[in-house]
Amino acid sequence: MSDLEPPAGLEASGMRLWSSVVDVYVLTASEVAILAQACYTADELDRLEAAVRELPELTVRGSTGQIKPHPLLGEVRQHRALLRQLVESMNLPDQSQEFGLRAGARHARKAAAGRWSREAAG
Asked: Where are the domains of the chain?
């Protein structure tokens, strides 16, 4: 259990994210700041997703009458991408690592593992 206090105003998703990270990892000051932003983003994403579920339709009419996706769908997509980016930028290690890998290194590791598994199977 960490002695770090969660940021004020977090809701359920933000608190779950906060606890899931601070209860496992020792964070630097910059990682704490990023985590706080990720927690607020998780809460905003929950509110946006709830608003989308309340919509009668997922499409709206544009200025010339064309059908287009509801603007909230784009906001949900952007918040999901932002949340992923914030969490990845903390560069937290997997349970089997001593330290985290940057995104490029994680991608290279997955690619190499995929190549090795195909070669071993083939």
From this structure: 12-90
